[in-house]
Design goal:
The protein is mainly alpha-helical. The chain is built from 15 helices and no strands.
Length: about 280
């Protein structure tokens, strides 16, 4: 049955209106955060919706660096982010390739056990992990935040790689092996260059989780402020004893944390969708 053109236009118009209204509603918290970060302390206390501050104080983004050691927190956060991305790109990709292409005894059972770990809530593992790292003297260091990440501890990333690698035609794999390429060579020279969507998607996930992680740094870093991340600094700012610890400074700090995520998502959104949904098939 051929759909009436007028009906199709009305349907599409309705959908676009609904999506636009939904997007506007979702944008309100972000706009309020931006607006508050540009207000003076006395303007924040005024109980009225004022999205465009008067006056606009860009100075807040300079003053925040004197209120909290933002640069130090950023460097600490980037160290954890780098370890997370490394673990997502190398160990997880290698594990995904092994489960997808290498035949070894118990492969399916091990993969099922790996997926089963995704059903175990992280809060269940917090105390045993903390006791282990405390026993070896790693608490209040970056060790517990870096080691699990560089070892590729995320089963979801391995699952994504496996599914993508399984979708790559066997002819490509067989041809490479016949030409004398090792398993590592097939993974590094052929499969990884073909897997840009899933690599980008996993990298975005790893960046987002490590950048926003609050619970793990809170547990393992504790009172060692020299190693605090941005999330801990933001939490501390809410109770910071200083003249500029009002809500406008909190929102300014929040925007410093939000902006890198917005940039990463803006440039990587197309890979984020294709990496999660792609089957590994090759377009001719």
């Amino acid at each position: 049955m051929i759909e009436n053109p007028t009906t199709k236009i009305l349907k599409n118009t309705f959908f676009y209106i609904v999506l636009t209204l939904g997007a506007m509603v979702m944008m309100v918290p972000l706009l309020w955060t931006v607006s508050t970060s540009l207000k003076s302390a006395d303007k924040v206390s005024i109980r009225q919706l004022e999205l465009i501050p008067d006056p606009i104080r860009f100075e807040n983004y300079v003053e925040i660096f004197s209120v909290q050691p933002v640069v130090k927190y950023t460097v600490n956060t980037l160290i954890i982010v780098a370890s997370s991305i490394f673990g997502a790109l190398i160990p997880c990709a290698l594990a995904g390739y092994a489960f997808a292409r290498i035949q070894f005894p118990g492969r399916n059972i091990l993969f099922a056990l790996l997926l089963a770990t995704m059903m175990l809530p992280y809060v269940v593992r917090i105390i045993p992990l903390f006791l282990f790292f405390d026993e070896i003297g790693w608490t209040r260091t970056f060790g517990p935040l870096i080691l699990p990440r560089i070892l590729g501890h995320n089963a979801f990333y391995i699952f994504l790689y496996r599914q993508f690698f399984r979708g790559i035609p066997n002819d490509i794999y067989d041809s490479a092996r016949i030409d004398g390429c090792s398993e590592f060579g097939v993974w590094w020279r052929i499969f990884m260059p073909m897997s840009v969507p899933v690599v980008a998607a996993v990298s975005i996930f790893a960046f987002e989780f490590a950048w926003n992680d609050f619970l793990n740094p809170l547990i393992y870093l504790g009172s060692n402020q020299e190693l605090w991340t941005l999330s801990l600094g933001l939490n501390a700012l809410q109770g910071f004893e200083g003249a500029d610890s009002s809500l406008n400074m909190v929102m300014t700090f929040s925007m410093i944390m939000i902006m890198p995520m917005l940039v990463v998502f803006y440039f990587g959104q197309k890979y984020l969708i294709s990496g999660v949904t792609a089957s590994g098939s090759i377009k001719g």
